Design the sequence.
């Protein structure tokens, strides 16, 4: 590649083609900026072991544990050897890690060694275990100097969202490589100097460095505060720009009907809506009832109920005869959203509103069926990835666009979906808080 690597550079120029391909398949990451926005889910420490008793069968985990015992033995039933490693936490709870025909691991996994281990928790003969886990061991010895030893034990270790093929520390290594490769002069700070100084936020480059490579808890906490404000600031600017443009393109009022889909949805919920969900829902309903297209942001942590807020808005739009489209950045997230929406609606409403999935990897026959449901208006709720932006996709009456993780889509991509409505559709953006 000619020239310096920037946040907009293709990921392969910073981490290599193979790693870039893996990251794209896992999370649709395309640029250096996409990777550096893949923030840690949490932080561990070398001196704090994961509570193994809290693990459950089927969990995909990244844990910090200590090797208590390790042994290699020949298998009786078939040719080859079995390596059994007993991992433990501070309480004495144990987890078994097993390997097949890899006796050389016994030279690494010696009693007393600590590290991070990643894999799927399974149960065999009543024993919780990890089979062929990926792992990365910490330095063999604690520094002799007491202050250095304390810093070594307490230094935060970022734990990233991971997959079975890309454990957390491989993500960490790719991010470190990107941080070392990107040209710092090409990292533009989105905040005006006056705002950054008034709130004592970090410069953008420093925030990226400290969120991914913190020396202490204060580093990542200050970086998190900075990056959270960045996202909110940029989203607000984008929404204000779009709101100004939307006022020049009148939309269609969408109101719930007495005894309609929204009332039936609320009546069938097995729980009471929270005060926040009711308040946000009322504001969204008021916006939907206007002819000026809504542009609203809903921000919250995973599990805070953002999807239910969106489903209630979709039900209100369906009451007016309109359709809703939810745009997700990956096929995995799109499928998750479809399951959540279907579960929230329940069997009766789901049969009437017919939530439909559209992704790029769908078989041709399923894709044709989905396209027909969309263009005919039979599918009142459509969930999909970038496939929704295709020219082949036509809506009967698109009334609401819901965008998940807006920063993963370009402005032109989002606008391409909005133009599929007869009139300008209402827009609802869902976004998570930086952990």
Sequence:
């Amino acid at each position: 590649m000619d020239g310096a690597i920037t946040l907009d550079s293709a990921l392969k120029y910073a981490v290599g083609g193979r790693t870039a391909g893996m990251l794209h398949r896992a999370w649709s990451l395309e640029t250096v900026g996409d990777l550096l926005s893949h923030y840690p889910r949490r932080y561990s420490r070398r001196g704090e072991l994961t509570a193994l008793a809290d693990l459950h069968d089927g969990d995909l985990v990244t844990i910090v544990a200590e090797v208590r015992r390790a042994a290699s033995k020949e298998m009786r039933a078939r040719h080859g050897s079995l390596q059994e490693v007993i991992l433990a936490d501070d309480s004495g709870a144990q987890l078994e890690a097993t390997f097949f025909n890899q006796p050389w691991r016994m030279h690494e996994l010696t009693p007393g060694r600590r590290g991070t281990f990643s894999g799927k928790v399974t149960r065999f003969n009543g024993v919780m275990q990890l089979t062929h886990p990926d792992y990365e061991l910490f330095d063999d010895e604690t520094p002799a100097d007491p202050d250095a030893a304390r810093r070594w034990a307490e230094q935060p270790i970022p734990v990233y969202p991971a997959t079975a093929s890309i454990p957390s520390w491989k993500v960490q290594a790719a991010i470190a490589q990107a941080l070392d490769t990107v040209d710092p002069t090409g990292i533009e700070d989105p905040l005006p100097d006056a705002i950054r100084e008034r709130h004592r936020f970090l410069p953008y480059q420093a925030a990226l460095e400290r969120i991914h490579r913190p020396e202490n808890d204060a580093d990542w906490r200050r970086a998190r505060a900075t990056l959270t404000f960045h996202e909110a600031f940029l989203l607000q600017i984008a929404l204000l720009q779009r709101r100004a443009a939307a006022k020049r393109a009148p939309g269609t009022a969408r109101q719930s009907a007495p005894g309609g889909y929204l009332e039936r949805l609320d009546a069938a919920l097995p729980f009471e809506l929270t005060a926040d969900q009711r308040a946000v829902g009322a504001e969204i309903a008021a916006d939907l009832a206007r002819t000026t297209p809504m542009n609203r942001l809903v921000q919250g942590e995973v599990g805070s109920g953002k999807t239910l807020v969106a489903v209630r808005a979709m039900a209100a739009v369906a009451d007016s005869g309109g359709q809703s489209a939810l745009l997700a950045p990956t096929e995995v997230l799109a499928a998750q959203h479809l399951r959540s929406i279907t579960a929230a609606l329940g069997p009766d409403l789901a049969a009437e509103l017919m939530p439909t999935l559209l992704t790029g990897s769908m078989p041709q026959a399923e894709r044709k069926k989905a396209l027909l449901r969309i263009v005919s208006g039979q599918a009142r709720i459509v969930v999909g990835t970038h496939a929704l932006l295709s020219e082949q996709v036509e809506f009967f009456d698109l009334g609401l666009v819901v965008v998940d993780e807006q920063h993963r889509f370009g402005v032109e991509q989002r606008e391409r979906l909005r133009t599929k409505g007869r009139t300008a559709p209402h827009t609802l953006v869902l976004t998570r808080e930086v952990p």
Summary: Residues 1-43+161-187 form one domain. The chain has four domains: 1-43+161-187, 46-154, 189-246, 250-431.
